[in-house]
Design a protein that fits this description.
Elements lengths: L2 H20 L9 E2 H8 L3 H14 L2 E4 L2 E4 L1 H11 L4 H16 L2 E8 L2 E8 L14 E3 L4 H9 L1 H10 L12 H14 L2 E4 L6 E9 L5 E10 L8 H18 L7
Antiparallel strand pairs: 1-3, 2-3, 4-5, 4-9, 5-6, 7-8, 8-9
Helix pairs in contact: 2-3, 5-9, 6-7, 6-8
Length: 258
């Protein structure tokens, strides 16, 4: 290996260590001591201290007494990267991949008050399909996507209950106590699966999509006729929907728990 190659490899290793240090800081833990940074990264104490001091000098980190946090200069430099970020554009590959894996239509929803709206769609190639279109508006309390919104965002539940729980099919849940039990189960499982709550003959599985702040920003789901999506299929398909939603969250800057 030549000197230039050795130099290049060394620079990559240094950058990797710097990345390890910066990734220690999270929304939940924005301030850390040098000892905590060393423990989280697993770097030798002398190496960690040297790199932290370098990051401090360059404005990548700020220090207050013995506590470090991401530097304001780094925040300022990163700001232009958030301009023009399009949730639809960033998550479109995820919807298409889930559609190809399951064969069924997939959709991304955002919330507006007591309603959810389809903002992106990857349609099934089956001839028998549920009619879904971008811009379609639906209530929160009927269907898996709405229940995910309510389970992970208290404001969504308040909006839905305040608007009134209208019955759309015989299987629509309009009892608040029953609804709250279901929402607790959705939070525990990390997804919702519903059958014929909004339309007879329609079923869906949905999971939450989180943004870089850790807040719920959207819901990702798959939709199919009940002939092809039954309760017996949930065990196989739900993990795929959850994995897709986690991928979408990562693309939006969310850091999943280790």
């Amino acid at each position: 290996m030549g000197k230039s190659e050795e130099s290049g490899t060394s620079q990559v290793l240094v950058l990797r260590k710097i990345r390890q240090i910066l990734e220690c800081f999270t929304v939940e833990q924005p301030e850390l001591t040098l000892q905590q940074i060393t423990k989280i990264t697993g770097l030798p104490a002398s190496t960690c201290q040297r790199l932290v001091n370098s990051l401090l000098r360059e404005g990548f980190l700020d220090r207050n007494d013995d506590v470090y946090r991401i530097g304001l200069d780094l925040v300022r430099w990163a700001a232009p990267g958030t301009l023009g970020l399009d949730i639809v554009q960033l998550t479109r590959p995820v919807l298409r991949r889930l559609r190809d894996q399951t064969g069924e239509s997939t959709a991304l929803y955002v919330r507006d008050g007591p309603y959810r709206t389809v903002v992106s769609l990857a349609e099934t190639r089956y001839s028998v399909m549920r009619i879904f279109t971008v811009g379609m508006v639906m209530p929160l309390h009927a269907g898996s996507a709405g229940k995910v919104f309510m389970a992970f965002d208290p404001a969504a539940r308040r909006a839905a209950v305040g608007h009134g729980l209208t019955r759309h099919t015989p299987r629509t849940v309009v009892d608040i106590d029953v609804l709250d039990e279901q929402l607790a189960e959705v939070r525990r499982r990390g997804y919702s699966a519903t059958f014929e709550e909004r339309d007879v003959g329609a079923a869906s599985i949905s999971a939450p999509v989180f943004g870089h702040t850790g807040d719920l920003v959207a819901v990702l789901g798959m939709i199919a006729p009940t002939q092809r999506l039954t309760p017996a299929d949930v065990g196989d398909l739900a993990p795929r929907v959850v994995a897709a939603a986690e991928d979408a969250s990562r693309r939006l800057g969310h850091r999943l728990p280790a």
